[in-house]
Amino acid sequence: MKPRITFIATLLMAAIFFGCKQKAAETHDRLGKATREDKNGWIYVHLSGSPADVGYQHGFLVAREIDTLVKVMQYYLPTTSGRSWDFYRSAVKRFLWKKIDPEYQDEIRGIADGLHAKGFKYDTLDIAALNANIELAQYYVPELNNRIKPGSGDNKAPGNCSAFIATGSYTKDHKIVIGHNNWTDYIVGERWNVIADIKPEKGNHMLMDVAPGFIHSGDDFVVTNSGILITETTITGFKGFDTTRTPEFVRARKAAQYAKSIDDVVKIMTTDNNGGYANDWLIGDTKTNEVAKLELGLKNYKVWRSKDTAIIGSNFPSDPTLIKEETTFDVKNKANSPNARRLRMEKLVAVDSKGKLDPETGKAIEGDTYNALSGKTSLDRCVIDGHVELDPVGVPEWSEGPFYPMGAVQGKVSSSELAKKMSLWAHMGHPGGADFLAGPFFKAHPEYFKTQGKYLRDMKAYPWTLFSAADHK
Question: Rounded to an integer, what distance in angstroms lies between the CA atom of residue 59 and that of residue 76?
Fold first, then answer.
């Protein structure tokens, strides 16, 4: 009997060995050809495959940074919105999860799986809440506050980002040039540093900047192999949110992944729109060199489009009906940040650079620090490359909460010619080249250390860097 027992034991051990080996191979296969490269302040990732595998690759390769960003949100959101992280998880569970398309549910599960493989125990509610944090904290919570106490939640939507898109006689080659810089609190924005090259099973190959753990861009700068270019700036003072409709982050990702035309982007973004993260979307189609602006509220939207124009975005709404019915924006206040930046951007993009616009002039525009009101170069809230932490007039009327410093945290530029190669220029840190140093700031403003000391860190300005999508086969 002894030889038989030995033989059976050997078979069992072999089965266990090959089973473990097969399991390891399956885990490895989920990574496929995914890669990560750290470059000039950016984390550059290549992701491809099924929704679950794209998510797994993202969660696995960017695990440490996702973990930190969730912890920042757990620390940050209770102060800025008065609601705990558990509140946002609960909101996802109650109404938001069921409005996420199944493929994006799979991608979110994949991110959680990738995090688990790295030892971080987050679930789908955490990842979905992270993706929806802007629309939940700045649109849903104010709407909820208004239901509890009328008037208490108005005017919470911030005015962040400076962008443009131009074509025809406005650009050097008469094709599209597009640029954007992201304004947000440095405690978050310094970590908004992923360039994601995503080749999904279905839809467009996409190159975009994202925050760690996002399935969408978030600040929205996207180049796709269908020739579509997308960016946006928020509508200042917007109010409105509908919990029964599709989240903005889902519609934004779907537009990036499936739109083949400007009409497609408009249709996807306006269908089942929940009003969250209401924006002026700047859209270009490199196949036709036509550009457009979609101003999208909850009740109202309007589209402007042309093959010979320059369109700018600095958080000001344009449609009189939308302004009246859905915002508290003061169009007559020339001193507010959106209107002040509008003056400067219109002059730079539509006048000074007319016929000269290319990626290089786009970089200069996104890093511009000239204040059109004072007529001087300065670092404040009224310049394109915003520096709110140095604003001499204090907390601006269009912002909320104690979490300052904030301002422009990074920039991106692309064009029709770059888009043919699935490429974009990206700059981490202030596009104008200024560094933010946490130590000197806390020394000058110790009152902020209590609320920001744990996570606020230096935000260095890196060089402009060219990123091109890999050809996943």
Answer: 22
Give the lowest-confidence range in 152-156, 261-265, 380-384, 390-394: 390-394
State mean pLDDT over 171-176: 98
Task: Give a yes or no: residue 448 inside a domain.
Answer: yes
Counting residues of the chain whose pLDDT is more than 70, the rounded percentage is: 89
How does pLDDT run across 1-15, given as a tens digit for each residue? Answer: 444 444 444 445 554
Q: Facing residues of 209 across strands?
A: 195
Average pLDDT score over residue span 78-90: 94
Which tokens go with 71? 């912890």
Cβ 297 vs Cβ 288: under 8 Å: no
Task: Look at the chain and report how many structural domains it folds into.
Answer: 1
**Distance in angstroms between the alpha carbons of the first and the last residue of the chain:** 54
- For 72, half-sphere exposure in the C-beta direction (CA atoms, 13 angstrom radius) is 25
Burial (CB count within 10 angstroms: exposed 0-12, middle 13-18, buried 19+), residue 463: exposed
Contact criterion met (CB below 8 Å) for 80 and 400: yes
Q: Is the pLDDT of residue 366 over 80?
A: yes
Does residue 158 lie within any of the structural domains? yes
Domain around 402: 30-468
Interacting residues of 34 by C-beta distance below 8 A, sequence separation 6+: 45, 46, 47, 48, 57, 60, 61
Q: How confident is the model at residue 159 (pLDDT cuts 50, 70, 90)?
A: confident
Domain annotation covers residue 8: no
Burial code (b: 16+ CB inside 10 Å, e: under 16) for 39-66 equals: ebbbbbbbbbbbbbbbbbbbbbbbbebb
Q: Report the candidate in 335, 446, 316, 330 with the shortest Cα–Cα distance to residue 392.
A: 335
CATH of the domain at 300: 3.60.60.30
| pLDDT score at 238 | 93
Residue 100 burial (CB count, 10 A): 23
In a domain, 311, yes or no: yes
pLDDT of residue 470: 80
